[in-house]
Amino acid sequence: xxxxxxxxxxxxxxxxxxxxxxxxxxxxxxxxxxxxxxxxxxxxxxxxxxxxxxxxxxxxxxxxxxxxxxxxxxxxxxxxxxxxxxxxxxxxxxxxxxxxxxxxxxxxxxxxxxxxxxxxxxxxxxxxxxxxxxxxxxxxxxxxxxxxxxxxxxxxxxxxxxxxxxxxxxxxxxxxxxxxxxxxxxxxxxxxxxxxxxxxxxxxxxxxxxxxxxxxxxxxxxxxxxxxxxxxxxxxxxxxxxxxxxxxxxxxxxxxxxxxxxxxxxxxxxxxxxxxxxxxxxxxxxxxxxxxxxxxxxxxxxxxxxxxxxxxxxxxxxxxxxxxxxxxxxxxxxxxxxxxxxxxxxxxxxxxxxxxxxxxxxxxxxxxxxxxxxxxxxxxxxxxxxxxxxxxxxxxxxxxxxxxxxxxxxxxxxxxxxxxxxxxxxxxxxxxxxxxxxxxxxxxxxxxxxxxxxxxxxxxxxxxxxxxxxxxxxxxxxxxxxxxxxxxxxxxxxxxxxxxxxxxxxxxxxxxxxxxxxxxxxxxxxxxxxxxxxxxxxxxxxxxxxxxxxxxxxxxxxxxxxxxxxxxxxxxxxxxxxxxxxxxxxxxxxxxxxxxxxxxxxxxxxxxxxxxxxxxxxxxxxxxxxxxxxxxxxxxxxxxxxxxxxxxxxxxxxxxxxxxxxxxxxxxxxxxxxxxxxxxxxxxxxxxxxxxxxxxxxxxxxxxxxxxxxxxxxxxxxxxxxxxxxxxxxxxxxxxxxxxxxxxxxxxxxxxxxxxxxxxxxxxxxxxxxxxxxxxxxxxxxxxxxxxxxxxxxxxxxxxxxxxxxxxxxxxxxxxxxxxxxxxxxxxxxxxxxxxxxxxxxxxxxxxxxxxxxxxxxx
Length: 859
What we know:
Elements: H1 2-13, H2 20-26, H3 38-48, H4 51-56, E1 60-61, H5 77-83, E2 90-92, H6 100-117, E3 125-129, H7 145-150, H8 154-171, E4 175-177, H9 200-215, E5 234-240, H10 259-266, H11 268-277, E6 281-284, E7 288-289, E8 292-293, H12 298-308, E9 314-315, H13 321-327, H14 335-345, H15 360-366, H16 371-387, H17 398-404, H18 408-421, E10 423-427, E11 448-452, H19 474-481, E12 487-491, H20 523-540, H21 544-549, H22 558-574, E13 577-583, H23 608-621, E14 626-631, H24 641-644, E15 647-650, H25 658-666, E16 721-728, E17 732-733, E18 738-747, E19 753-762, E20 774-783, E21 788-796, E22 802-803, E23 809-811, E24 814-821, E25 827-835, E26 840-841, E27 851-856
Parallel strand pairs: 1-2, 2-3, 3-4, 4-5, 5-6, 6-9, 11-12, 11-13, 13-14, 14-15, 17-25
Antiparallel strand pairs: 7-8, 10-15, 16-18, 18-21, 19-20, 19-24, 21-27, 22-23, 23-26, 24-25
């Protein structure tokens, strides 16, 4: 075998060295012919490549990319030959610190150099972050993922990611490191804001929508050879798997999850995304499960993902994760061994810089590693490049790049999604309003509105954000809303953290490299660009990017907060109503990517100064309306404020149009329709707290309440909805069939509104214990006052399958209980049906999504 490998390598290396342009000019080779199939072109190119050219396709450059950028961030062709003489698979995050036009110019120049000055002219994939919009200067910044999930709107998720894809392609990017499909069960974990909640069905549904927005609708007739449209990009499923329930809530810590629960809960969204949306890329997680880090989990990456699910895309490492197999997991003596283990397990590409995978060359040459394993990985990379049309792609239009990002139309979409993502947690009556509910506020009864809060005058965007052209903060939104109607006054009331991120180091003393899971820029580049970034941040009205990237988070000065609190209390006494904006910021809960850059917490409470501020402001306001607005990325425990405050709004991080959306909701121009995508526990001691638990977990606590503060699916409206006439037309069904579930929904209130109806099921008697309830379908239903709609769910019986004692997906005969309502705790209708026949193994026909149809009656 070793002799044949070396012979093949020698033959490939003996090819006359011609540039890509020279090859094209000499003759049109099969891989250069767009009329040929993706498979034909891939195999033709692969056989022409040397070992060094193949390994180059499995690597990316990020920190090292800066070697080919000058002081003006322009591409330096003279240095490219030394950095990527054999080409490159990825160029990582080329938009960093560039305007859209600069990014387009850099990408065009880099691709042009690769086509014309490497032997085979293989272009690069440009990958970018896109968690809640394209993470680049001037791009549209949408609500953070947790907020987005609170909309329970697959249509809006798809529309948002379509904008992200279009903006990326306008600057020459092709690969999005999104969406995040982690199931989140620990709000101490700083990355929880990046997720779409705790439920596998909800995350799967929104994940499918995200992939269709990024990649386009899958065409079954083309399978995994489907070409990408010119405004679509590769989607990356993050992070496989168990990442959202780390030990003690610590980022990258082991996930203590049993195999059955791992498959039924944590893997389900990924399986749905692969099978139903053909996601083209998967990123393993940093953590380990049962002693096996995901980046060397061959049973998962090869047996489950590729063989069972049929995945034919690329598996790309998380940043520095292969090196961390040695440095953090302490599994290997050197990076060469870690690289071999990751490749054999099924990780096709290393990011962010060539550290471990270049060491594979010597292992192939020595016979320690089969060249065929390299070929398999290169094959999936080349296939994506052909599917994206990179070999035929023309330069992006530089002159249009700036206008393509952050358009007025995209900002309107961002506002609309933000409005749907706001969750009304509580809305009690107050004496000053004659016993009416606190919200919506009546502008005609307010002459003076007090807006109080640490960040009420800044737009918080959350992690993985750049700097959009402009933002609208809460104070600005309310000022515009009440312009000419009422006076709007602001008091900060408290600071949560200091603004120490504005105190920059000199570039000369900053560290220029890192060996961590750092997903920010290097310290040196941050320092060199700090002044320009601060100026841009100030102009846009958000410091989220700077705050999230800065290593040290320092708590605010209590003495300063006492002064600020006194000012706020004085203001509250003079105002007719108070909007109190409290919560956290991007420095207080975030991704912990290094030992010196932490972001996980042991508490879920508001800071002590904020709690004191809230208590004193409410007392100063007396009987006047006080609305507590939470701006944060994770569930918070509110303590006594949960009962004291008459109205509580969960606003999350709502994106660049935060102020407009929130003002419209507070004054009734928008009726809130958001629902919580995860459980709010009463304290950190209640963790883990999730709705789809087992029956034996709910006995209770001594001297405390085990129920959640706010349950999964919770969210109030300014109107009322009534549920009636449940009908299950299929009382007896078989495996492979469907249960047809119908009911009537009526808007019985005085305002138009949207209800998110939720279908839950329970298997009360099974061969293994089952959850007390599981989400099996949902729909957003918008109704005028008095209007009625019929909602029908078609629930596949195979969707109810679970893993039996032999780890087979089975459907068992017996009763299935059906529950329909407004949240997991507010169930309005109950019924059931029976599954007949014998136990059926449905492993090859597992259903992952139900269908829903809504028929409207005239109002």
